[in-house]
Amino acid sequence: MPVPILLVTGFLGAGKTTVVNHLLANADGRRIAAVVNDFGAINIDAELIAGASDGVVSLSNGCICCSLEGDLLRTLSTLLRRDPKPDYIVIETSGVADPADIVRNLMDPVILREAPVETVLCVLDAATPPAALDDALQRSQLRVADIVALSKLDLADEGAGLRMREAIRAQRVPAVVVDAKHGEIPSALLFFASDRASAPRDPGPKRPAEERFETLSWTSDQPLSLPRLQQAIGRLAPKLARAKGLFETVEQPGRQMVFQFAAGRATLAPGESPAPGVPRARIVFIAEVGVLSKVELDEVMATCLVPG
Question: Which DSSP helix (H) or strand (E) runs through 236?
């Protein structure tokens, strides 16, 4: 099974390592492999450290941390050969790196098949002067992002967050913008656990810890019409923060497709063969609380099914 990559970008001092620290310390059963620039900045509680060898810090919660030195693709290949493999790989980029270049490198066919980029997260210091977003590097970091996390709100003045949101909007960045107090980001926006192996039916909403967002699941035992799905997603898109799912189509029965929607962009890619005994369509939708009801979601998604 492919191992999704979360790419964490942001300018120098934005708070990227604080976000990675929080992810590693609060993995919630996920095996996360973090590729970071500087081990010295990783501040995991001492009781979580299980050992260190060969440039890898092992944590007692099943996560590992390795240093981003030399060739990134070689580092990823090493991680993918570990037994057991990680569930997710988090890559923290340098503050002066253009994430667009890194994404292009990760398009290597071998890596893409084994470890696709699932989410690009840009961490942005809320106290950054809005004019700084005109910098070419910061614009690139923002525009490739699916999610923008505003950090250091506790150190900024009261209106900093609002000013920064307005500045991001002025840049026409389609990403979802969230507050990241002390590096905390709603995990539902970063990790999709429900599309791993089999997914049980779940007719009701699940709330992430951050009450701004809620997760709604939709399943079907019928394959979907691809043109009808495109129309349905077009109707839902204005209300969605993210979505991801696995499904078969009427046009290609027996072949599973992987669907992703982030930052206003929808993509489809071939998936693995469907597991026996699971619904033929399983899609997770994330929206702000109260914006999308389960009734509306079910009504719209029902139009993807071909009568009879």
Answer: helix 226-236
Q: Which domain, by its residues, includes 80?
A: 5-190
Q: Are 78 and 84 in contact (CB under 8 A)?
A: no
Tokens describing residue 231: 């129309």
Q: What does the pLDDT look like over 113-164, one tens digit per residue?
A: 888 888 899 999 998 888 888 888 888 889 889 899 999 888 888 888 899 9
Alpha helical stretches, state H, 90-215: 99-105, 109-114, 136-143, 160-170, 187-190
CATH at 160: 3.40.50.300
Among candidates 31, 28, 56, 30, which has minimal Cα distance to 42?
56
Please write the tens of the pLDDT for every residue from 283-299.
Answer: 988 888 889 999 999 99
Query: Measured between alpha carbons, how far is 7 from 30 in angstroms, rounded to an integer?
Result: 17
Q: Are 247 and 269 in contact (CB under 8 A)?
A: no
Which amino acid type is present at position 214?
A: E
- For tokens 């369509």, the residue is 281
**Tokens linked to 132:** 């700084």
Tell me if 66 is assigned to some domain: yes
Residue 308 belongs to some domain of the structure: no
Q: How many angstroms separate the CA atoms of 87 and 58, rounded?
A: 15
CB 80 within 8 A of CB 115: yes
Mean pLDDT, residues 250-269 taken together: 83
Residue 54 and residue 124 in one domain: yes
- The amino acid present at 28, given as its one-letter code, is D
Last residue of a domain, one of 144, 160, 190: 190
Q: How many Å apart are CA 173 and CA 130, to the nearest integer?
A: 14
Read off the DSSP letter of residue 13. Answer: T
